[in-house]
Amino acid sequence: WTNTYCSHPLHGMDVNEVDSAEDVKGGTVNGVKAAAIRKLEHELGIPVGQLPMDSFKFLTRLHYWAADTVTHGEKSPWGENEIDYVLFATVPCKDSITINPRPDEVDDVCWVTQSKLLEMFADKDLLFSPWFRLIANRWMIGGGENGKGGWWDDLDRTMNTDDFCDYENIHRFDPPKEHLGGGGDAGPWLDTKDAPSSANGTKSAQEKVQGDSSKKQGAYGKIKTHKESKLKQLMHLDEVCSAISLLYINPLKSNLEGDYIKKSFDADDLAFCDDILCKVSRSFAAVIRQLPSELLVDVLIFYLVLRALDTIEDDMTFFASNDEKVKVLLAFHKTALVDPEWTMTGCGEGDERRLLEEFPKCHSVFAALREDSRRVISDITFRMATGMAEFVDKDLGQGTLDVKQYNRYCHFVAGLVGEGLSRLFSASGLEKPSLATELYLSDQMGLFLQKTNIIRDYLEDYVDGRAFWPQSVWKKYSASGDLGYFANPATAEHETAALNCLDELVTDALELVPDCLSYLSKLRCAEVFRFCAIPQVMAIATLDKCYHNKDVFSGVVKIRKGMSCALINGTTDVSGVHTIFNRFASSILRQAELSRKKGFKDPSYERTVKACNTILELTDAEAKRSGGSIIGSTLMLSTAAVGCLTYKYPNGSNTTALTTSMASVGMFSLFKSSFMKYVGKKGV
């Protein structure tokens, strides 16, 4: 059983069924009402004209999803994720309309009272659509989940006043528990405390809860993360020692407390910016903080401004139409960066939402920056927004069209960031003025980082409905012609196709490395060099982890935290960075050659070998000079620790092995507790 009918408005109908943002805001929605009249005839056989358009009352909208587990089992591949417009209509009596149900749409029709409906809800032998249960329990019937009077309790008030109307908000609900799960093991993600649900009106902006930090934008955090077991991590004593070294021996120094910064910026507003930076991006917080004081805040605010813009672009449900989103994006540099009181409520999730809602604090710090820095940030913000607007109307459910469009998207969201940073570096006086003109190298460096993220986040992006793998690449390997073909490959043929596609995209990213190394070679400030180098070495390590790895298609693969610490320790100079790139290029090359020997026929093999050899040629000299180690004295520390244990118990190898293992556990425990404190304190 379900509600009377579902309207399913269509594009391109003779009687327009598409509503504009203004239609929704004004509550007219004649497009949805026209669709309702069409579907009444299609489903229930009610002749067009018996219920005219003005007989429908538009009340509100809801965003809901459900897996069809009740009908098709707990691993059902079927489900829905949609935004619904709720319409009410009343008739004086049953006989005032003609009902002739279509047998291919409707099995039966039943007129019910409130008490009868509640009785049917309680009957375990009857099935109801999950969306109807949500609407009925939350809004229609008084004393339901909202604990207040419902729409059905006072139909005259519902139909003739706007007391129950909410045209501003889209209410978000997870389904009843029996409709969780499905083939993607989907769990709760929409039901939030700040989604207004009262039948007596909407909450004001001040009443809404600001930023649930447990929530992330899009599908982030809802896809399985592939992690190595604690035991496997314990086997990497060098990485454990690297973490201890980074935490206690040679940590990244924060320059946020410098005199220049204290004198130049409002302490409370800057504290908010620093705190929110750690919340929205731990990975960048520490490397930004170690920048010199004359550059640190400029880069911090640059990052937050672009993160706010990205939050607006990423929210797929907040705006009534794409046109409205485009207007906000294109005006962002003239509103958020000009108006000190500008704010946006309800857009995004978690801390990203909080960033937008408390943006005046960011504006305060932005306004205190040097004029040349403000000019750079405003220019890049506008150009990035223009690029984002270009992609808003594109259907990215199946990725970008081709490599050209793939590169163009990466340019807008990452290449421009590289350009902006180069200009800020130069404006600070820490780097040569000529660096600001290195537009191509800056762009390539950004593309390398962005492509790495896109490769790693295949499943998250696909589930979120905004994917970026280029169709001109993946369609060569997908037997179904669908990007989702690669998700959780079930057969050897299936897996081979997925890995071929993955390896080609990894190779495409590897071909950017020479330009990244060239850019790094032009930097003269040690802190700026490290700021740029750390994300680059993380990216090459991530590509190594992703290459020929089927786990990419069932979750998100990440490098070990201990390895991250070792990589950070190795970025103090060009020699260390070249050594890291050399190591991981060699690893990818070995994997490609080993797969080849095992009979795996990779169409990108020759191209992969060429890309890796090019990197090796560029980095061999420095790698040999440093001895090929990315952890240096840290490895010696690890070896010394084990050596001492062996010396202490010279008799009995079992005792020695056990003691060594226990020491490893102790070191790992220290690493875990210390590292988590470090994450909270420094935002790594």
What does this molecule look like?
The structure is a single chain. α10 crosses α12, α12 (about 295-315) packs antiparallel against α17 and α21 (about 490-510) packs across α26. It contains 28 helices and 5 strands. Residues about 145-150, about 190-220 and about 630-684 have low confidence and may be disordered. The chain is mainly alpha-helical and about 675 residues long. The strands form 2 sheets. It has a 3-stranded mixed sheet, covered by helices on one side.
For the biggest sheet, the summary is: 3 strands, mixed
β-strand amount: under 5%
Using the CA coordinates, give the radius of gyration. 29 Å
Percent helix: 40-55%
Tally of individual helices: 28
Shape: globular
Q: What's the rounded overall pLDDT mean?
A: 85
Number of strands: 5
Brief characterization of the structure:
By secondary structure, the chain is mostly helical. It is built from 28 helices and 5 strands. The model is unreliable at 143-148, 192-220 and 631-684 (pLDDT under 50).
